[in-house]
Amino acid sequence: MAAASALAAAAAAMPAWAGTGMPTPWQMNLQGAATPVSEYIHWFNDWLNIIITVITLFVAALLVYVIFRFNEKANPVPSKTTHNALLEVAWTIIPVLILVVIAIPSFRLLKLQLEVPKPDMTLKVTGKQWYWSYEYAQDGGSPFGFDSLMLDEKARAEAIASKKIAAEEAPRLLAVDNEAVVPVGKIVRVQVTGADVIHKFTVPSFGIKIDAIPGRLNETWFKAEREGIYYGQCSFICGQNHAYMPIAFRVVSQERYAAWLAEAKQKFANAEDAGHKLAAAAQ
Ligand SMILES: [Cu+2]
Question: Would the CATH topology of 36-114 be identical to that of 121-282?
């Protein structure tokens, strides 16, 4: 028990599990999984890798066998065989079976991604040139929203100094001014749209990648199972600053979420007005 709580404390102290929530140098595989969908994606990726490896080794072995067994020297008088019923049935049925064992988990994954379970909360995300806006719609009370912009080098340095945090806790090109905060273990429905051009809302550790299209409301969901910070990026070339509109989710306990909610409602109470004024000034 003591060991478990020590482990939990150590895990909580870390910004995230290595390779989870953000890319790491020399990372070879997918970012670590933080949601059931992402875990399924990992399993499916491994499963496909096994199938691919077995097929590749089998075909390579056949090729090597043919090269040595049936070359001109080893086999001077070639067989005139043109048909073999058993072999032809086998090389039709076996690939079909392989496709079936791929298709079944593939459709299950699609169903898991597309069927949004009964949500605990709804978050609306709007892709803009070049930042994301978040709206917390249904948390019992007036909705509120805010813009989330990447910290440039100066703002990053200031954040590191003022919050007294390590540089890794405000990673370059990923850290933002306003993180989207969500409670751990809760089903979050995410509605995604675009305000100007097509963007793409992607959070690898959540297993989310969905188009943000102007005039259309796309829907996805996640249930983050571990606290921490999870980053993503726009994955659809959307213009000049496409690379500079990261996504940041901070997953916290229910208590910390409630505290943040109370604070954020105050802080962003007039954010919508401010946004409109900003848009009007830009026109
Ligand atoms: Cu974009």
Answer: no
Over residues 227-262, the pLDDT tens digits come to 999 999 999 999 999 999 999 999 999 999 999 998
259 Cα to the center of ligand 1, angstroms: 31
CA of 248 to the centre of ligand 1 (A): 14
Q: Which CATH class is domain 36-114?
A: mainly alpha
Cα–Cα distances (Å) from 64 to 60, 69, 71, 229, in that order, read 6, 8, 11, 49
Distance 56 CA to ligand 1 centre (A): 38
Cβ within 8 Å of residue 40, ≥6 positions away: 108, 109, 112, 207
Query: Where do the structural domains in the chain lie, given as residue ranges?
Result: 36-114, 121-282
Instruction: Name the β-bridge partners of 210.
Output: 201
The pTM of this model reads 0.82
* Residue 210 one-letter amino acid: I
Cα 246 to ligand 1 centre (Å):
9
Q: Tell me: domain 121-282, CATH 2.60.40.420, correct?
A: yes
Which helix or strand (DSSP H or E) is residue 282 part of? helix 271-282
